[in-house]
Design a protein that fits this description.
It is an enzyme of class 2 (transferase). By secondary structure, the chain is an alpha+beta fold. Helix content is about 35%, strand content about 15%.
Amino acid sequence: MHESVKQAPKQTNQVSSHDADVALWLPDFCTMAGRKADNQDSLLITTCLPYGFPSLSSSAFHGAYPSFTAPLLVLMADGVSACQFPKQASQSVINTVTHHITSKLAEMVQTDRVQANEISNESQEQSPNPLHRFDDDQVAIVIKEAVHQANDALYFPQAYERLPALLSTLSGLLCIGDRIHLFHTGDSRIYRIGIDSMVLLTKDHHIHHGRDKGALSAAIGADTRVELQQSVFTLHQNECLALMTDGVYESITPAELQFELCAAVQAMHQSVACPNQIIDHLQMSQRLCEHAFSEGSHDNLSVIMLGMNDEIIKSKTHRETDNGIALDQGVDSDSSHAQDINHYRLPTGLAVGAQIDNFVVKKIIARTARSEVYLVEDNDQHAFVLKSPSLNVIADGHYLREFLKERKIGLSLSKHKRIGEPAYNQVNPNSVSSHDPLLTSDVSKKLNATFNASNASGLLRYYPVPASSTYLYHLTEYIEGESLRVFMDRQAPCDIWQTYDLLTKIGMAVRVMHRNYLLHQDIKPENILLTQSGAVKLIDFGSASSSILKDSTRPPNGDLHYAAPEYYTDAPKGVHSDLFSIAVIGYELLTGELPFSSQELMNPSASLIVPAERLRQNRVPATSQQALMRALHSSTQARYQAIGEFLQDFNPDNSNNTRDPEPLIIRHPLLVWHSICFIQFVIIISLLIYFS
């Protein structure tokens, strides 16, 4: 038994060793079968170099991208022993995820390289580092897609081809620069280790039964959807990450585990300062596996430790200190925000007739404390809206970076090339597919007919700012119409059919963002424009955030009457949060009043009670009332989780098909109580006459 421990661990992959000056990450790993006959774990640590990208050792590569460091992909999959082929399951997950992430990174690098070449040709400057263009939201979407592909590869063959079940856990890290993307499902763990601290970053997907270990509640291949945990962060100096399977952490007490991991972190960073000790520090993962084995573990044993080169961290900190603006804590600091805001100029105080980047100002639309909005025309007399920050926010780095982020999101949702070409969100993206399981065929046909009437409905269209511009502004399409706020001030309360039509258009526009893994987070009448043709345009993406990276969601900056209550608690944010805002607008359209005060929404202990009396007074059908009340529920679990489901229940046509109408006392409460009082009066008079 002792000899089996001394055997060299079975290593599933080796990390390619490149030039020492680009060695950003320090990996250490070990995996062994332990007391099991086979090792069902699969590990992968690889420099995730996109296909077709120049070799790291290429002199041409270093000449073009001197500061390039290849992304590092770290994966750990543990095949579930209950299935027939656990090793094949874990290997399949590793291969599928690796292939998809590598392919997508290659596409993103190629796109950025083309854009960088175009910019360099115009400005005669050297193109920037392409991997510095990756942002957290894009990478999170790639990871989510990769995991779902791996899940499909395991789940559908067993469901439809009657093949043996294949199940596996997955814990992974994708390191791009100094940004670390964590993704996890199952019961392996990822720890963040300091010199004297240990923090568990992942959630154990377990269903516990008393004191027993319980069973997995989530795994790759278990269902059509994967319960995937994702987050993004940056390591600090003297910190490391540790990935391990349940066979390790369940056999070592938490106190002993923390002691050994903290000691390993200290040894790892000492080995960087003393290169002659580098061989000794590569034994840390193996010692943890051996410790778990000696404590009686009956499972496979796998550990990966990942540290960051302190010299890289120090140089990065020095560069950030020298830079003019530092990122605020808690802000989504993706790579696109790392550019220096100071080199931009603000086109403020423009007068009619002024010129900026070949645009001529035709009208001053608005000037507020935070922004200035102008109607401009280009040389071909195409109308645009130019929006820039005002001078009052010139010292607010957070707001300026959010301004840049809004432009990035707007351009990604538009996906067009130049004026005159149809944009992505103009080609009827809001029409509901007939294959949508959340909507009946009748509702789907009606919604499709609604949106086929006008291809202009959807999201506000953004245009690229000239690459040579030194000004900070947005360029969007010009819409002739009015905001929903102006419409409501003039028309509310509206009838149920007009409200249903507006909510349908708003909901389908918001669903375009949700399909792109974005939450709008600031849906209110002021951010909804109604065109002259009756279409809807959703504007202002400044508060938008990734629906994948849940930790990036934050309380909105705008009108708090429309913000879901979970933005002020630890409750999960998601599609149901945007749907809450849509339901508030629906209630306001029907009644002319808001359902809740901002104090009620901001009070985490408050139980929201929808004032339904106003809905009944306006003769809103019972089914539509119930749909609104569910969408406005204080509990995120009780609310709708899909916009299509809400619209289907809100549809006034449902009231004609309702078999069980509302009780008479709800429909006509005064009539019921008057009738009861009259009957009692008759009975009393009769008794008095009888006994007199």
